[in-house]
Amino acid sequence: MIVVLKPGLSKKDESAVLKEIRRLGYRPHVIRGVARTVIGAIGDERTHQSLEALGNWPQVEQVMPVQKRYKFVSREAHRADSTVPVREHLIGGKKLHVMAGPCSVEDERQLLTTAEAVRQAGATILRGGAFKPRTSPYEFQGLGEKGLKLLAKARRVTGLAIITELLAEAHVELVAEYTDIIQIGTRNAQNFQLLIAAAKTGKPILLKRGLAMKIEEWLLAGEYVLANENPHLMFCERGIRTFETYTRNTLDLAAIPIIKQESHLPIVIDPSQGAGRADLVIAMCKGAVAMGADALLIEVHPNPAEAWSDGVQQVSLDQFARLMQELRPFIAAAGRE
What we know:
Blueprint: E1 2-5, H1 11-23, E2 27-32, E3 37-42, E4 60-64, E5 84-86, E6 89-91, E7 97-101, H2 108-121, E8 125-127, H3 145-158, E9 161-165, H4 172-178, E10 181-184, H5 192-199, E11 205-208, H6 215-227, E12 233-237, H7 255-262, E13 267-269, H8 271-275, H9 281-290, E14 295-299, H10 317-333
Parallel strand pairs: 7-8, 7-14, 8-9, 9-10, 10-11, 11-12, 12-13, 13-14
Antiparallel strand pairs: 1-3, 1-4, 2-3, 5-6
Helix pairs in contact: 2-3, 2-10, 5-6, 9-10
């Protein structure tokens, strides 16, 4: 069951509701949002008294049964769209946000050049990999803490918020110290202990879909974040592995309306990983915006031919500027800003 509390309650009033939920044999999970506090009551309704009577309590706005395996991320739990605060921005609101930057942070000049260019073109968040998960152990693995410090410098210089990937539990505190959004990549999408550790930082989490992940599995992975009292979750579709070899991955744009139907949380589209080809990025961005994506995550490099990782899927600075111009009518047609 989901118990939605009325806004502005005192700690005493909230504690009284929690006490009653426990008395009836349920285990409460509290999620504090910007406007509402939601309590997920975990327990078998077949063997415990129903919580529906709590709907008569003056502290309670609504009590809802939940049938989905993913309780907190479900649209049943929260009918209205949720937004995720990132510094002065809200992801999931009327504004379409663009997160852009290099696949890997290479050096100060490369990062600051890219950051300033994407900011001028209209991006609001700078992406960049400090720790890189690579298929081969002999490929560039990222600059680590040095890369995080360069991202922080780029934020100071440009004012852009930053997003970077977290790879290991050992790095949780370090990454959380520097970043505004913690990205959980496709290889760690079902690393549940990492998800729990990331959630406990309180930072916004961007959860990429696994390479061969069913949508229900993706939603259940997201449940780990909200179940650990962090409501600031975004799903990111980045392409899945199929039989097709023309593209690196197959970008599943159908995930946009599905996530919108099943969940109240924002969805972000990564067209760079989605196909692994820079020449398809603009077209896929247009499709994503038209279908209702809340944000885009785009790889941009000053000289993709010399990139230390994934140069073939990164757009140049000029291509990114053109992309942002060509997106404008699609953003307007989608009713976004």
